[in-house]
Model the fold of this input.
Amino acid sequence: MAEIETAAQVVSATGSGWRVKLKKRWRAWLRALHRDIGYVAIGFTVIYALSGIAMNHIDDWDPNFHASERTLTIAPVPDDATDEDAVKLVATAAGTDGDTPTETLRAGDEVRLTYGSGTQVTAIGDTVTVQQRSSRFFFRVANWLHATRGKEAWKYISDVYAVLLLYLAISGLFMIKGKLGLRWRGTLLVGLGLAGPLAYIVLSGGPDAHKADPRTAGEPTRPADGIRMLPPEP
Amino acid sequence: MSERPDLDRYPELAPRWDRRQFIKSAAAGTLLMAAGGTLVRIAADDLTKKARADKRSDGRPRLPPGQRVLENLRAMGGQEGDGSVKTFALKVYGLCKTPFEVDYAGLLKLPTVTKAADVHCVTGWSMLGGEWKGVQVATLAEKAGVRGEARHVIFEAAHGFTANVPMKEATGDTSLVTWRLNGKPFPLQHGAPVRGLIPDLYFWKSAKWITGVRFVKDDIPGFWEVRGYHNHADPWKEERYG
Done:
């Protein structure tokens, strides 16, 4: 069977007897479209797959930023120091006196300096905390795109991508006929792919499995007489 | 394991053989990484073992089921506020006789407390024994003259984030509007300059970049609650998903 090179060629094949042509060549049409949509989907897939892995492990690392924090001990800022002197003292101690803070605040026992780079220097008593962070290459923007929160237009673009993925998945079922297709290998692998999530749902108990036994974990324990002695006030 | 075929003699087998080798290598690599990760996690989990043996003063286990202990908070994302102490303002309002708004310096002048509290993230980590400094939500409620019909508290944060908490938990002893953990200010990723703290519920209820505390009569499910997470979020009942 002749391979159709582009989806456009399929469209141009319309005309007299197009139903016959379609019946004969629907698999080639499916493959051509699968291939072209596959090319379109590569950029989206790389972004979603890598940021998906990154955010899946968000409890193990910060997928967006490298964050650092250091603390220094200084002589506490004297109460009678002017705000300007207090800022100078803290900036000098933190080694940030070469930059001009975008924001300074002296309130309560704190002196806070914020810099344009995002660095935050806070003096509390005799401790200065310097907090800095920098964006992770690629992941910051990929994660931003992946988490659609607050991005109205991207929400619909990613909906389109999801529909394209559905097409890739479903058309993939019918691209090859015979033993390598749904007659044997395809069915086996589709079954394996479905078995994974199904087995996980069954073995893990599904979304309600984590509900703990209320007899042991749900309520605070109470003595039989209903009175529990509290520790004395310090 | 099958032996390598004579690919010089049967070159048509080369693509299939290469593919097989690739799949084998990929599978072996994945298994190795998974095993390594599991070993690292098990070896570093003494904190969790110790916490599992502890009890809280109310008799519940110190570590809720399905949690592991980390030494520090993890950054869990979210749409950050600007972190500015200059522009910070906390609005305390809703069903109140004397609603008010307070800036950062004003907040520090309110009666402050330092409370030891454990926090539990819905993703499975807990951080135990943090010393949190702030103002009790109960103090804010008292100052605002909250009316008797208020039943829920809506914690509002940057970019429209909200988290709903029943009045009982929101005004508990360790429920705070907090600006310091273990003597240090929060970095931006953890809610700077001020965040909520509701330690007896999953940590998403402790809104970062807090902007408001609103007292309401009827419950209003918040950002995560309308996205499939549990409306109440008790870690000891594993109320993770709705």
Notes: The CA atoms of residues 68 and 132 of chain A lie 5 Å apart. The interface with chain B takes residues 55, 58-65, 67, 69, 71, 103, 105, 107-108, 110, 112, 114, 118, 120, 122, 124, 127, 129, 131, 133, 143, 147, 149-150, 207, 210-212, 214, 217-218, 220-222, 231 of chain A (CB under 8 Å). DSSP finds seven helices and five strands in chain A. Residues 214-218 of chain A have pLDDT under 50 and may be disordered.
